[in-house]
Amino acid sequence: MKTIIDLLEDVDISWSLYQEDIPYTGSGGNWINHGNRANNYVRKHNPLMSYDSVTSNEDCLEKSKNFTMFYSNLKVGTLPQWMFITPNMTNDRHDTSVTVAGAWAKSFLEPLLSNPTFMQNTLIILTFDETKCYLCRNRVFSVLLGDAVSSSLKGTTNDTAFNHYSIISTVDNNWNLGNLGLKDATAPVMIK
């Protein structure tokens, strides 16, 4: 099955997956902090590790990195064009609260938003994968940040019914990638 990675690679768009507390580059397993038993890294939150086209390709596995590599790449100006960044289970609200997730997001994003190396035609889509309620409709908070958001859109809301495929359709649209022929083909684009 094709993934967004296949579309990016077809047109030589650089990419990486940055996962907080992934134990080593290309790891396909979970990692539990033995000090506090917290699920620091879980493979299911690194979704591209579910696809053979990624896991059977050494070059792709080398692009699934930890946050140490993110900061190292940022420092020397070698971050890729497209990134999928996931905090650990404590910082993403799964095992804690929205207060913890918000504090983490602020501490992670504020320095980046003022970093001229990072902020060059940058769009950050901050979102969640699910609501706390498994029986209700999955409505999640998302916010677009970065200098790719035009000043006329800053501080506004949008009533369009976006979904997670909208993230892929936004990437498809940004680089004229075409689409995967799946729900990304009809999902509304978040920003043009």
TrEMBL record:
Pfam families: Phosphoesterase (PF04185). The keyword Hydrolase applies. Keywords: Hydrolase. GO terms for molecular function: hydrolase activity, acting on ester bonds. InterPro entries: Alkaline_phosphatase_core_sf, Phosphoesterase. The keyword Cell division does not apply. It comes from the Eukaryota. GO terms for biological process: phospholipid catabolic process. This is Related to phosphate-repressible acid phosphatase. It comes from Phialocephala subalpina.
